[in-house]
């Protein structure tokens, strides 16, 4: 299991007709990249999003896992520049 927490000040809240969205931008560290590689190699992966009052489990689709692999591959290539 991999866990990533953010302080309230690092989270941006956006409200629209589709609901409330929370995002956080950060620079991935080596342990973040390692966790993403494990997720990308899994046949199925569930991400748990937790807040103060709610929790939601999200099952990644095969397309999302495939896209994650492409992003990680691109990151590795750019890191060599």
From TrEMBL:
Organismal lineage: Bacteria, Pseudomonadati, Pseudomonadota, Betaproteobacteria, Burkholderiales
Organism listed in the record: Collimonas pratensis
Protein name: Uncharacterized protein
């Amino acid at each position: 299991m991999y866990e990533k927490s953010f302080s309230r000040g690092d989270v941006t809240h956006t409200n629209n007709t589709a609901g409330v969205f929370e995002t956080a931008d950060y620079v991935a560290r080596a342990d973040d990249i390692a966790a993403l590689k494990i997720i990308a190699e899994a046949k199925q992966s569930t991400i748990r999003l937790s807040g103060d009052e709610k929790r939601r489990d999200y099952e990644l689709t095969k397309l999302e896992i495939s896209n994650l692999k492409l992003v990680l591959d691109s990151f590795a290539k750019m890191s060599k520049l």
